[in-house]
Amino acid sequence: MRIGVIDSDAIFQHPFFYGKKIEIKRMNPGYCIKNKNFPFSHAEYVCACILLENPTSEILLYNIIGGNAGNEGELLYRSLEALIEKNVDIINISLGVEIPFSKELYDLCKKSPVPIVAAHANNNQTAYPASYDNVIGIRREFDGNVILKRSGNQNLLLNNKTYVSFKQLDQEHLMQGNSWYTAKLTGIISCFRENKNLGIEDIVDLIMSSSLNQISSVKQNNSENAILVTNRSDNQRQKEFIKQCFSKVHIIDINNLEAQKIVGYYDKLFIDIDKYSDFMSAKKDLLNFVYDIRDAYKHCYIRYPFLGYYDRYRFLTEKGILIEQLYF
């Protein structure tokens, strides 16, 4: 699965990106970090979203936001044209490029055989190409109990309560923004297209009709008991978290899943693994464990959303078990 991305510059030095298939075409070089609390470029955040959902995908990044400002509209057109010619499978544009309506860009999007997923502006200004009726436009807009719904021709709306975790980059801060939602949905859609060979409309129907589209039901309730799977059982902060959240806990180390015998019935199976590498190393054993003890718990939650949407969709449809994640 080849995913075209039009965005800022990037260097991809975090270990999360090691071994990932990323090619950069620098149209406008210039690596920019805006805030020490968010120590990655815009494109790095975008690609982290896509690759969390589809780790085996190949990303072709065209950098049009960089050291020189003023010709982003032209670079957007040229990059989009190049990606279409390269016959990538899907194109992600998580940019709020402020350009006027362009008939040439509109026509290019209209004739594109490649699906284009684009972010609307966070400030509610009209954004192109997200506002074109031949592009899948993404924005956060509504309140309710579901994560995603349709609006108009090609627009997909995200719940106002939706936050994106970048724990895969070891970042503690949650973030909101149409750029990140767009990238997450690009990654999710690419998985469905790769594994089920479905059209965009059918994929969106599957996503919206699934119980995975419900806002997570988890609530802090220290009267409940839980099976807690962790990679840091001796950590003091973990112990304080357990004390605050649960009345009774059966603690299991992630490296000792096979030796566990669960006695009794628990309100929650709570998976609290805070390192992406630890989660991925144990992913197969962990999912087997979730299934093997399915009669010992009522609900299953993952605190840090390291398990991709498509993996959870398959687990739900094939095993009948809903794994909820606290963040998008």
TrEMBL record:
Any one Gene Ontology molecular-function term assigned to this protein's record: serine-type endopeptidase activity
BP term (GO), one: proteolysis
One protein family per Pfam: Peptidase_S8
Native organism: Blautia obeum
Superkingdom field: Bacteria
Name the record gives this protein: Peptidase S8/S53 domain-containing protein
Peptidase S8/S53 domain sequence ranges: 53-211
